[in-house]
Design a protein that fits this description.
This protein is of the alpha/beta class and about 220 residues long. The chain has a single domain (about 10-215), classed as Rossmann fold (3-Layer(aba) Sandwich), CATH 3.40.50. Helix content is about 55%, strand content about 10%. It has helices at about 25-35, 50-60, 65-90, 100-110, 115-125, 145-155, 165-180, 195-215; strands at about 10-15, 40-45, 95-100, 135-140, 185-190. A five-stranded parallel beta sheet has the order 2-3-1-4-5, sandwiched between helices. Helix 1 (about 25-35) packs across helix 8 (about 195-215) and helix 2 (about 50-60) runs antiparallel to helix 3 (about 65-90). The structure holds adenosine-5'-diphosphate (ADP) and thymidine-5'-diphosphate. It holds the Pfam family Thymidylate_kin. It comes from Thiomonas bhubaneswarensis.
Length: about 220
Amino acid sequence: MSALNPYRPGLFVSLEGIDGAGKSTQLQAVVDVLRAAGRQVVLTREPGGTEIGEKIRELLLHQSMHPATEALLMFAARQEHVLRVIEPSLLGGADVVCDRFTAATLAYQGGGKGVPAERLEALARWVHPGLLPDVIVLIDVPPEVAAQRLAQTRQRDRFEQESVDFFARVRANYLQQAAASPDRWLVVDGTQSPEAVQGIITQHLKKALQLFESK
Ligand SMILES: Nc1ncnc2c1ncn2[C@@H]1O[C@H](COP(=O)(O)OP(=O)(O)O)[C@@H](O)[C@H]1O
Ligand SMILES: Cc1cn([C@H]2C[C@H](O)[C@@H](COP(=O)(O)OP(=O)(O)O)O2)c(=O)[nH]c1=O
């Protein structure tokens, strides 16, 4: 059982980082390390993870809207996700690996777009009282590096078209959150090779799992 969330048997892991940090590249390795340890794993994402959540995701990624609307839709999608996927999985004993969670709303809508943190924190208390990931992996890269990677690869969605300044604010907010809860966060230097990033995440998760299973 977890020291942080002592009421449930599943480990909750989320991955965070600015767009282009290398999150998608590392997701499967996170799942693999847990499965190799004999755990059952549910891989999911935000915004999304449920039928309603995926519809909200489509709106969010492609329609322009006020940052407050954006934040409220993120939490609407999250409410469905927590109630239908995350909590039942954790309570049933499965680990949940989530591509982004509430830290992303604090960083993007809060740090990046100026929605007041206390409003976002109030929504978080409403939508998932007492529930936070046990481990939050932040893949940290300077926005210039992320932009260069994205330019070389894919069509950008609405969020990925934001400026380097925007991503600098998002990154700074993530780093502040991590500094405030060092026991929960792992900050990995994402400018290293994918193999090096994977090695650091794997080692950390193995230790976190040992601690979790010994409680
Ligand atoms: N450590 C790394 N070093 C160099 N390039 C990377 C690294 N990790 C990912 N990439 C590349 O950067 C781009 C964005 O990675 P991706 O995993 O899709 O990022 P995210 O999911 O965080 O937006 C992809 O082309 C990917 O191959
Ligand atoms: C969960 C979440 C995501 N986002 C943004 C970050 C991403 O740009 C976008 C989609 O997330 P994601 O699917 O993680 O993007 P990618 O894998 O392409 O990096 O939504 C927020 O702005 N706030 C949030 O709360």
